[in-house]
Amino acid sequence: MSPSAKYYFQLILCFLGGHATSVVSFSYGILQVYLYSYLYQYNPALTMKQMHLQLPVLYLACTSCGWLQGYLSRWISTRILHLVNMLSMCGWCVVLFWICQNFVAATIALAGIGLSNGMLHVYFVSTSVNKAKRHPSLVSGIYGIFQGTSGIWGNIIGSTFMNPWSLEKQNIESSSRDYIFTDERVLSRVPYMWLILAAILFILLLPGLIFIDNDVTEDYLAVELQVQENSPLRETNKENLSTENCLNEKDRVSKPILGTLMFLTAITIGINHLCVFDLFKDFALKLKQYDNSDMFLNNFGVALVIAGAAGRLVWGFAGDHVPTWLLLVVGNGASAVLQILMYYGRRDKIWYLIVCTLLATTTGMMSIMPSIIKRHIGQENLARNFGLLLVGETLGTVWYLVFVTLVGNIPDLTMVWALSVPALLSLVGDIIMIGKY
Could you give the 3-state DSSP secondary structure of residue 117? Predict the structure, then answer.
């Protein structure tokens, strides 16, 4: 295989790996109603609020532990880490086949899936960006498209396997916005749903384990410097490296500031993810004629997936042609405005569609973060630095959940303004740093 063909082949495998890392987390947001229905059958004392803890547990595990990949890859082969995480994700899905009727055990299993999921995500995204010699932001955006479209598996499993009869859900708690299934035909299929997810993950992750080069992403910069040292243009390269070191001296102040602003942006993206999810549910319940129409909700869900994928592609393309400060100003400015508009347009169904769709596109900002790190902070330790940004996304999720618990649902004005604080802070910083990066 020629070097060029090998390069594109391995990028595609990284994209498929990124797609796989979001199959459980994205599809679970769609399929969770089936697990909730199954849990309620065996645990009638459980409330919907308690069952809703599972989604943040999965999401927090995914985003808070990704930095481990960067640290462990310094001492452990990335292929071994890949194998362990792949077997862990698939294994926990198989375990859920047996224990999904137990709330605590199922929650622990979801956390185990999330841990391996987050580490694999950091591995695939850092590997794809490190391999991208040109247009790293576009490569990162395409990776984000593969990742964002993984929710389609949830729609396929839900409409063709779990509920092919289009049965209606029932509201078992008058104080809750949630509907669950009570039909035995649907409930009996819930355990097998996890076996299907395990098979999908195994098929998507196995090619990457076999064919992606076993290079440690943290040592990539050292390899590049060694190549330069052995080059006939060694003296020119040394001069370039000396110039680069001077620039790095000047960046000692700007890099921490940029890192802080990116961290605030990651918090904003974490908030936006759950805003989209809650707006979707709230919108469905306001349109009474669609309350129990799985076909409409599936179509709306697919539209959000497409919007998110398109946003990732646009952000990726812009990342290679637009200054970083302008990307962050536009992204955080749009996030702040849309978060505030969630309150003022909440009675208009068209407004719901527009705000929800545009918020989905803003989450695509996360897909260009690895290339921004590579360009401005450095390729060395890219995996660890991106993993730390995922911790910021985790904090955004926690920020959202705290205000949902203390204040109420999205339409509350106090909550909306509170949610927009990270985006506004980052926006102010981005404006101050205009032209600096």
Answer: helix
Q: In the numeric block, which tokens belong to residue 197?
A: 């997810």
Provide the residue range defining the domain that includes 132. 1-219
Tokens linked to 46:
């459980």
- 203 and 265 co-located in one domain: no
Please state, in angstroms and rounded to a whole number, the distance separating the CA atoms of residues 193 and 35: 9
Q: Is residue 131 part of a domain?
A: yes
- Token pair belonging to 228: 């330069």
Global pTM value: 0.77
3-state secondary structure 38-97: HHHHHCCCCCHHHHCCHHHHHHHHHHHCCHHHHHHCCCCCHHHHHHHHHHHHHHHHHHHH
Structure tokens at 321: 């042609």
As given in the structure block, the two tokens for residue 50 are 């308690």
Q: Give CA–CA dist 260/254, Å, rounded.
A: 10
How far apart, in whole angstroms, are the C-alpha atoms of residue 164 and residue 76?
45
Q: CA-CA distance, 217 to 221, in Å (whole number)?
A: 8
Tens digit of pLDDT at every position of the chain (437 positions): 677 888 889 889 999 998 998 887 777 777 888 998 999 888 888 887 788 778 778 877 887 777 788 788 878 888 899 999 999 999 999 999 999 999 999 999 999 999 999 899 888 988 888 888 778 888 888 888 888 778 788 888 988 999 998 888 877 655 555 678 889 999 999 999 999 999 999 999 999 988 887 553 443 344 344 434 444 434 434 443 344 444 444 454 467 888 888 888 888 888 887 777 776 666 665 554 444 455 666 666 667 777 777 888 888 888 888 888 888 888 888 888 887 777 666 566 677 777 778 878 888 888 888 888 888 887 777 888 888 888 888 888 777 777 766 665 545 566 666 677 788 888 888 787 776 66
Last residue of a domain, one of 219, 242, 272: 219
230 domain residue, yes or no = no
- Our count of domains for the chain comes to 2
Say which CATH number the domain at 397 has.
Answer: 1.20.1250.20
